[in-house]
Structure formats: structure tokens, C-alpha cells
């Protein structure tokens, strides 16, 4: 049975992105956003988790994200009797057709177009 796809952005969602853009293959911020590993471990039981980022289409971007997640996950990277490990997370080079996407730089469309002023004043959670 196929699980629905949960697409997660990397910068500002999994990775805190406090140092800003240093290159697709450079991820220096430590640690990951609080609660990331626990959330991912719960999510892989219910969703096909796919990480997609602006890094994904650039040389070394996916490798850098995979290395950083594996480093942070430790033993949680591997499958265990408790369930799947984070090794089961996919990294896409193109944005997937997802059931749901979590991104720090998005507005959920509710059928009403936002004002231009509200768009121009948008701030991600870690900049507020």
C-alpha cells in the first residue's frame, strides 16, 4: 500500500538556516531544528517522506543534506525493531506531487488571495 507523500523543505524547516546561504553543499548550522528527528521518525510510519530544497537541483546539494541528516540521526538512521529509520527518507531532485508540504516560506491558500502588502511583509518563523 502506498503512503501519501509528505514533502519537507530543508532550509528553515529541518535545518535552522541561521547562517544563511553558504552554497548548496555547505550546511554548517548545528543542531537541526528542535524536534526534527522525533518528528521524522513518527512521519515515516505514516507517509513517504520526501525532502526537497532549492539545494536539490544543485551539485552536491542532496549529498550534503543526506550527510547532515545521517550525522544528526545517529542510530535513528537505521531501521530497528521499533520501526523504520531515517534511511527510508527520500531526497528528490524535483518537487514531488505531495499530499502535504511543510515549508517555512509558504502561505496556505484558503481561497482568498492575500494582499500584496501582506506578501511583502512576510517573515518566516525564525525571523519573527
Structure in a nutshell:
The chain has 128 residues and is an alpha/beta fold. 23% of the residues lie in helices and 10% in strands.
Describe the structure using short key phrases:
128 residues; 4-stranded parallel β-sheet; single chain; 4 strands; alpha/beta
Oligomeric state of the chains in view: single chain
**How big is the Rg?**
15 Å
- Strand arrangement within the widest β-sheet reads 3-2-1-4
Structural class: alpha/beta
User: Based on CA inertia axes, which overall geometry fits?
Assistant: globular
Mean model confidence by pLDDT: 94
- Tell me the series of helices and strands, N- to C-terminal: EHEHEEH
For the termini, the CA-CA separation is 41 Å
How many DSSP H or I helices? 3
- Count of folded domains: 1
Major beta sheet summary: 4 strands, parallel
Query: What percent of residues are in strands?
Result: 5-15%
- Total DSSP E strands: 4
Amino acid at each position: 500500500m502506498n503512503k501519501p507523500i509528505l514533502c519537507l523543505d530543508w532550509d528553515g524547516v529541518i535545518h535552522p538556516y541561521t547562517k544563511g546561504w553558504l552554497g548548496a553543499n555547505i550546511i554548517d548550522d548545528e543542531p537541526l531544528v528542535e524536534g526534527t528527528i522525533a518528528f521524522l521518525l513518527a512521519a515515516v510510519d505514516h507517509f513517504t517522506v520526501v525532502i526537497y530544497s532549492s539545494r536539490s537541483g544543485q551539485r552536491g546539494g542532496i549529498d550534503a543534506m543526506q550527510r547532515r541528516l545521517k550525522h544528526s540521526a545517529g542510530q535513528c538512521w537505521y531501521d530497528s525493531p521499533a520501526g523504520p529509520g531515517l534511511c527510508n527518507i527520500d531526497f528528490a531532485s524535483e518537487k514531488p506531487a505531495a499530499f502535504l508540504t511543510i515549508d517555512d516560506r509558504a502561505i496556505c491558500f484558503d481561497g482568498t488571495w492575500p494582499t500584496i502588502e501582506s506578501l511583502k511583509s512576510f517573515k518566516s518563523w525564525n525571523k519573527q
